[in-house]
Structure formats: structure tokens, C-alpha cells
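#struct-help
A.M.: can someone run this one for me? Single chain, 322 residues.
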Amino acid sequence: MAVVGLIIFGLISTLAIANSIKNAQFLTNKSISSEFVIQELPEQIPSNNQWIINATQSQKLVTEGATILDARSCKIFHPKSLSNAICISWKEFSQPQLPFKGKLLTDDKILTEKLQRIGVFNDKPVIVFGDTINGWGEDGRIVWMLRTLGHQKSFLVDGGFNALVQTGFPTVNFVNNSSTVRGDFVVNRKKNWQISQNELKANLENNNLIIIDTRELREFYGKTPYGEERGGHIPGAVHIYFKDWLDENGMLFSREKILEILAKKGITKDKTIVTYCTGGVRSAWSNVVLVDLGFQVKNYSGSMWEWSASNADIYSLDMSKK
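D.P.: on it. C-alpha cells below:
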């Protein structure tokens, strides 16, 4: 009887596996390579309210024609990229002169032209990756920019370049940053995720507002290593270095752990949050993480470059260690 039972169990298991294989749908990635095949799962499709995706979800979007943007300044420091990825720098879309280098270009026609040239479409997703271990959050800056300019299907890849390569994305030598297909995206700015210097100043006494300084601790306490005219932090700001939410492999901690870190600082979802750094890059990355977690958050892109260059009597800074 035991032998018969084992035979029957084996037959049932074999039929179950065969049925699973029969019912699974597989997609070959035609956008970047045919080198990997992924299983199509409904839960892999991100919603527009989701700003961060994993490498497997990225594969799914690429099979649907997503634009891939490499935000690592790869022309200088990263000779290898992903096949069909367009290498860009956040600086291409920002004002060129201090103290406004953190702020986006003001001319929507110029921004539209730049984004169309790199193959950004209105109705196609955009996935953005960076160097999460050595980078400055440039991928988050690009996603924040795209969302702010009206592209609601732009996503940051958790783990960046390394995670995508480990998942099966093939690498190629970097060639250029021009797309073979011109996009049709047209800028339509949104105010949801940005705040101006004057708006922030007017709300400093708002008890429902929490300001997060995402810089290094030495900057928070007054060091000026990146061209700030004055040192310190915006009065009332709490310090959370943007990489405090990453593990040693450059992957985001679990949602629960990040929420725990925030809660210890008194940051809850009933608060309005403003993030800032030196030039709105690290703070934009933090903005992406917080929005993805469901917080109401705005990035002050002018950040310390702008604030420290303004009248010290009006735009004061605090250097206290508390």
C-alpha cells in the first residue's frame, strides 16, 4: 500500500507541475534583448501611485516598451550600461548657475524638447536606475522631475543598476545618450511634490509641517563642502541622511523598517513633509521614497544653495547640535 501511495502522489505532483507550466505565460524581452524570459504576473504591474519598482517589475515594463534611463552620469564614471538605456544627468534639466542649480529649467518648451529627444512618451512608462551604493540619488531626482513635469508612469528601480543586472538585464558598452525613437511627451507641471523658498519660509511655524534635512550629518551641523554660502540647517529641520533607508547592498529596507525609522523622528502620515539637501537631488530621492510610502511630501529643490545665498536675516540657519 505504501508503494502504491507513493506512485499516486508522484503522478498527482507531475500533473500539477505540468498544468502550472501550461497555464503560465512567458514574455521575451524584445525591447532590450531576448536573453531573459520572465513570467507574466498581474501583481508585477505597478500603479501610477507607486513610484518605486523592483527589478522584476522593470522587466515587465520593458517588454511593454518602457523607456530606460540611466541616471548615473555614465559617460564619465560608468562605461557600461544596459542595452537601449539612455544615459542622462539631472543637470541637463536644471538651471546652470548658482545659487539656482537645484531648480528645474523654467522654460517648458526646452524641457519638452529634451525629454522627447531621449524617447519619453506620454503613454509609455519610464524606468530610471542609478548607482544606489555610490550615487547621490540621481535616479530619484529624475523620477521626481518627471512626475513634477506631468509624467505619471515614471518609476525608480530599487537597487538600481546592480539589481537589474542580477535579474538578467544584459549590459553593453556605453555609446551615447540619444534615442532612436523620438518621444511625444509634453510638459504639464504639477505642484504636488515641489515647494518654493518663499512657500517654505511662510510655513516654518506650521506645527503640521516636518522638514527633513537629507544631507550628511556634518553638513547639518554647519560644514559647507558643496558650495553653500552659509552653513547649518533650516530652523526646525530633523536630520535623516538619505542613505539611512538603504542596506549594505543598496536596496531599500522594508516598508515597515523605514516607517519605524520615521516614527522615531515623529514623522507620521498625518504630517506634511518637506525634504531638502544641497541642490535638491538627495532630497528628491527621499521625496520619491516617502511618496511611495503614502506620505504627503514636497521637495525644496532650491535647497541649501538657494537658502544660504539669501538674506541671512530672513532665511536664517541653525547650527545647533540637538
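A.M.: thanks! The two ends are 74 Å apart (CA to CA).
D.P.: also worth noting: The domain at 27-173 is CATH 3.40.250.10 (Oxidized Rhodanese; domain 1).
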